[in-house]
Design goal:
By secondary structure, the protein is of the alpha/beta class. Helix content is 27%, strand content 25%. Helix 2 packs across helix 12 and helix 7 crosses helix 12. The longest helix has 18 residues. The relative contact order is 0.17.
Length: 461
């Protein structure tokens, strides 16, 4: 190696992705991001993500997997786990004994869930009580227009889809205290300024005629019954989620960014799904996409990554080729596709700039996540990082290494640990996000597109 060559490898200098991306890819990037924004507008909750994912998959020739189904190379199958988790596979040319290539993301996002007994009236105003879901900063969720999406399960076994506030419909909101009266509130910390029990959604103010008590509450309930056919008692068996009403949109005078609710982690979920749907040739190894629920609260429950649903799906695929599932998993690779924190110069003290991810520098690879001493991280091996470097470089994927903030400043987790516990080699990779977990998050179009290219490269290799 000549001196010039080895000197260039001394430091992996970060370069803006626009300086490295071929000019011909700009149009492809914009087209991809248009599809991404449409997906985000259609998929506001984990249930809607699964529904939209199935619709897109079936358009690309995927069919619902049934146990015992005979599978051959090129077959495209999916399994819907309780309308909240979606697993898809394209059967490869090689035996499942040689492992599979997995991209696993989560499709749940921080939000406000309605309580089982949410509707009440106070001072002739109707409110809906909520219990926040995931790691939100509570003060960010006040004075933000909201919609309610979800399902009400009736005692007769029927389910009713509910969407309140979509399109031109009236929106909902959580109020805040005016600054003129906020002297005591200002003395509190950001975490204390808005309490969890104050995240009550304003639902109505017009009273019902002819009633003496709870006239506003009754008027709200009457409207819900007339439109959806459920009663107040049916809230007990409902899953209703309040999400920000803003749609996905371009951000910046140059339209170089995407702003939307729920980009953690649907930006990676869509990339993993779209890359699988777009596979033009039969891959060498079987390609698997996992879109899981409940990551924001620990990947628990029957639809989280810690469920046996993934194991069952893999066992069924392996049974079709008489391959022990353990033999498959130990030779498999998983890209744990979850977002990372983009460097924000407004809050530079929270980051270690040399090892932070930046907007427009490509998909971020995280050798480890966790917090304070890597607690909770799967910590991928050096060999595994080199493997992904090689795949990405060979496929023209723009990427960067990333950590989630300064040491001892915080941290976070992904589904990586649950995949690694299954004896699957796993590495975290995802799109850098500004204002992660806020009601409105920002990503760079270039990074979104490179996540898609990265997932496609993993499926192909």
């Amino acid at each position: 190696m000549e001196a010039k060559e080895w000197k260039e490898t001394l430091l992996m200098e970060k370069k803006n992705g626009y300086d490295r991306m071929p000019a011909g890819e700009r149009e492809a990037m914009e087209t991809y991001c248009q599809g991404y924004k449409a997906f985000m507008n259609a998929a506001r909750t984990e249930r809607e993500c699964v529904r939209e994912g199935i619709r897109l998959a079936e358009e690309k020739g995927f069919r619902a997997y049934e146990r015992g189904m005979k599978l051959k190379a090129g077959d495209r199958v999916y399994r819907n786990n309780r309308d909240k988790m979606l697993l898809l596979a394209v059967i490869g040319q090689k035996s499942l004994a040689e492992g599979v290539q997995i991209a696993a993301a989560h499709i749940d996002s921080p939000r406000l869930d309605l309580k089982p007994s949410p509707l009440y009236e106070d001072s002739e105003l109707a409110y809906l009580k909520t219990h926040y879901y995931g790691g939100i900063r509570k003060y960010q969720w006040v004075t933000v227009p909201l919609e309610i999406h979800g399902v009400v399960a009736l005692k007769d076994g029927k389910s009713v889809d509910v969407v309140i506030g979509e399109g031109d419909e009236p929106k909902l909101v959580v109020n805040d205290l005016l600054p003129h009266l906020a002297g005591e509130q200002r003395k509190k910390t950001l975490d204390e300024g808005i309490a969890g029990e104050q995240l009550n959604i304003l639902a109505g103010s017009e009273p019902m005629e002819g009633e003496e008590k709870d006239r506003v509450k009754l008027a709200v309930m009457k409207r819900l019954y007339e439109k959806y056919g459920f009663t107040e008692a049916d809230f007990i068996s409902a899953e209703l989620e309040a999400v920000p009403a803003a749609r996905a949109m371009d951000i910046g005078l140059d339209a170089s960014m995407v702003g939307a609710y729920g980009q953690d982690d649907r930006v990676c979920g869509y990339a993993a799904l779209k890359a699988l749907l777009d596979l033009g040739e039969i891959p060498g190894r079987t390609a698997v996409c996992v879109l899981a629920d409940k990551e924001e609260i620990g990947s628990v429950g029957v639809s989280g990554m810690n469920t046996k649903a993934f194991d069952t799906f893999m066992e069924d695929l392996c049974d079709s080729q008489d391959v022990p599932v353990r033999a498959c998993l130990e030779k498999s690779f998983c890209l744990s596709a979850d977002v990372t924190a983009a460097y924000d110069p407004n809050f530079g003290d929270a980051y270690e700039k040399r090892n932070a991810s930046f907007l427009n520098y490509g998909v971020g690879l995280c050798k480890y996540t966790g917090s304070r001493g890597k607690s909770g991280a799967s910590d991928a091996s050096a060999e595994l990082v080199a493997y992904v470097r090689r795949i990405f470089d060979d496929s023209g994927v723009i990427w960067q290494m990333a950590e989630l903030g300064r040491v001892d400043a915080g941290g976070g987790g992904t589904v990586a640990g649950f995949m690694a516990n299954r004896n699957i080699d796993t590495l975290d990779a995802g799109v850098p996000v500004l204002a992660m977990h806020a009601p409105f998050e920002v990503t760079a179009k270039l990074d979104c597109y490179m996540a898609y290219k990265g997932m496609a490269a993993v499926y192909r290799n």
